[in-house]
Specification:
Elements lengths: L1 H5 L2 H33 L6 H48 L2 H6 L2 H9 L1 H42 L1 H39 L1 H7 L2 H53 L5 H42 L21 E9 L5 E10 L4 E5 L6 H8 L7 E6 L2 E2 L5 H7 E4 L10 H5 L8 H10 L3 H6 L17 H14 L4 E5 L7 H15 L3 E5 L11 E6 L2 E6 L1 H7 L2 H28 L10
This protein binds adenosine-5'-triphosphate and magnesium ion.
Length: 593
């Protein structure tokens, strides 16, 4: 972690040494005060005041300059560390493979990125400042005391272990309570967050009472911890003052007795009193400083675990970047699992010719999206190979693959910004006309024009001001605009009405010519025209062929299709019955005996 600061070596050491010097100068001030008494006032030599006063002024100026320097350097260093850390986190997050995000909760990553950099910066600046200051103050005060009167010094030191012990005992408890308060507080924030985002579900399920009870439990917990912390803090201060008073009393008692005998000067007693009060605070504070350091080190370690994670999918040295991906795509005996021991694909083989459009159908959880993710190289096969343009795709550059594949994901994602910016996301140099053309092919043009500001309408965070179907159409336009060599549509039009869907299909036909397309759909009417339909179940292909052939074969696809067809018919009929029932005198569907 100090490596971060080491990159600004000069700033860092400049900062530490100025802090040490300023702390040291405090001890020197106390010594100068002793000289005022012993060398000027007691012997009646006012002329000494000139040089002592001169030193005083000089030291004050130096100290002021020192304070300015270290505060300034701490600021610079802190900002720089945060900047470096945030930047390396952001870079790393963009490089990391999907598998990392499967394993790591988003909340964890968010707190690494939002709060940890400032904690790390605080540790390297204010944390080190506290430590250096405290250590330097204690050491210099001790050295001066030993120099002035070693036996009285040692007597005073006896109170140090008592102070350290009391400090450790109390401070750690107080900190533990405050930490609890913070933890409960973040739980409360999370509860607020969930309540606000999930307000519809909460109301719909009538969970208000139960949520309130849980919430009350947490606020009670927070109140109790806060109360305990306040109580301990209130108790701690008088204890420290008591111990300090004992140390001062020792100085007054023994020092006073020796002064009467002339064994010690008045100035020395005065200096001792200064050093004791001076040492008191850093000593009792050590426990807090160390505990906070530990805490900050823990958060530093967490941030570095993020920065040091290595993406699982990286380009091999000498990876190729072909101009185009047009050609064949081949899955050869591909096996894949997200979690060891839970295979999703087993022995999956599929060869796709240039300009073929493949429809993947099958039951939920069958592995269709996984196939699409593998093709995009979001994940790599655990066994077997995927070949694009005749080459094992792990020998190609990721960028070359991903920039030539257009994907419309099952869960469409838009970024906050305008509709136009969202469509243009994958090809920033596209003209307005090209954007509009892509939107027309995707069947999105019409609704976009009907929006209040047309293409300049803000879509809101994650596109939440649009309907799911509208988001899908925009994602589709975005994929089309890239003019990809391979197009993957995972349930791309599942939330769009059937009329619009038919329109899109017509528009897409010209686009798909000469390209490979993978279309995943549950609504089988949309994939009838695919050149080949592949039925995937349990991670294997159980049937494939053209629509008509598969129907003729009367296998799985036939059953899926006829079932869906029958259900659609029934829905229509149901609607019909509902209408007639509304008109009928006895709406009871239960036949009377
Ligand atoms: N990121 C992931 N981490 C762990 N397991 C996953 C992940 N994504 C999918 N799975 C598992 O892999 C299996 C196949 O999922 P996949 O999303 O490929 O199915 P699908 O055929 O696309 O289903 P659907 O028709 O519902 O979209 C499922 O059992 C699912 O639980
Ligand atoms: Mg899916």
């Amino acid at each position: 972690m100090l490596g971060l600061a080491a990159r600004r070596k000069l700033w860092f050491w400049g900062f530490i040494s100025t802090v040490a010097l300023v702390a040291l100068s405090d001890s020197v001030f106390t010594y100068l005060k002793k000289l005022v008494i012993d060398d000027a006032i007691t012997p009646g030599k006012p002329e000494s005041l000139w040089w002592i006063g001169g030193l005083f002024i000089l030291l004050s100026i130096l100290q002021a300059a020192g304070v300015f320097t270290f505060i300034y350097l701490a600021g610079l260093l802190g900002e720089r560390i945060q900047y470096d850390l945030r930047r390396s986190m952001f870079t790393r997050l963009q490089e990391l493979s999907f598998s990392y995000f499967d394993r790591t909760p988003v909340g964890w990553i968010m707190s690494r990125v939002t709060s940890d950099p400032s904690k790390v910066a605080d540790l390297v600046t204010w944390g080190l400042l506290d430590t250096t200051w405290a250590t330097m103050s204690i050491v210099s005060a001790m050295v001066f005391m030993l120099y002035l009167k070693w036996d009285l010094g040692i007597l005073v030191f006896l109170t140090i272990p008592v102070l350290v012990f009391a400090g450790a005992l109390f401070k750690q408890r107080i900190i533990r309570q405050y930490r609890k308060v913070r933890q409960v507080n973040s739980k409360i924030t999370a509860a607020f967050n969930e309540t606000i985002t999930g307000v519809r579900v909460i109301k719909a399920l009538g969970r208000e009472e139960r949520n309130l009870r849980e919430f009350r439990g947490r606020t009670d917990e927070m109140y109790r911890a806060g109360f305990r912390a306040a109580w301990l803090s209130a108790l701690f201060l008088p204890i420290v003052q008591g111990i300090g008073a004992v140390a001062l009393a020792t100085v007054a008692w023994f020092g006073g007795a020796q002064a009467v005998r002339g064994a010690i000067s008045i100035g020395t007693i005065q200096a001792f009193i200064g050093y004791v009060t001076f040492m008191l605070w850093p000593v009792q504070d050590l426990a807090r400083v160390f505990s906070e350091m530990q805490h900050a080190i823990a958060s530093a370690e967490r941030s570095f675990s993020l920065v040091d994670s290595r993406p699982e999918i990286v380009d091999r040295p000498g990876a190729l970047s072909p101009e185009t991906l047009r050609g064949t795509v081949e899955f050869e005996r591909v096996a894949f699992w997200y979690k060891e021991g839970e295979p999703v694909l087993e022995d999956f083989s599929l060869r796709v010719q240039e300009n073929e459009s493949i429809a993947l159908v099958g039951p939920t959880g069958g592995g269709k999206t996984t196939i699409a993710s593998l093709l995009c190289r979001f994940y790599e096969p655990r066994r077997g190979v995927i070949r694009i343009v005749g080459r094992d795709y792990t020998t190609l550059a990721q960028k070359a693959i991903q920039s030539r594949i257009g994907v419309v994901l099952q869960t469409p994602h838009l970024f906050s910004g305008t509709v136009r910016e969202n469509i243009r996301y994958g090809r920033l140099d596209a003209t307005e006309e090209e954007v509009a053309e892509a939107a027309r092919v995707a069947g999105a043009d019409e609704f976009i024009r009907a929006l209040e500001k047309g293409y300049e309408t803000e879509v809101g965070q994650g596109g939440n001001r649009l309907s799911t179907g509208q988001k899908q159409l925009i994602s589709l336009a975005r994929a089309i605009l890239v003019q990809p060599d391979i197009l993957i549509m995972d349930e791309a039009t599942s939330s769009v009405d059937t009329v619009t869907e038919a329109l899109i299909q017509r528009g897409m036909e010209s686009l798909m010519r000469g390209r490979i397309a993978f279309v995943i759909a549950h609504r089988l009417s949309t994939i009838r025209r695919a050149s080949r339909i592949v039925v995937v179940e349990g991670g294997r292909i159980c049937e494939q062929g053209a629509h008509a052939d598969l129907l003729r074969a009367r296998g799985k696809y036939y059953r899926l299709y006829t079932q869906q067809f029958r259900m659609e018919r029934m829905r229509e009929l149901d609607l019909g019955t509902a209408h007639s029932l509304l008109g009928a005198t006895d709406p009871s569907p239960i036949p009377s005996p």
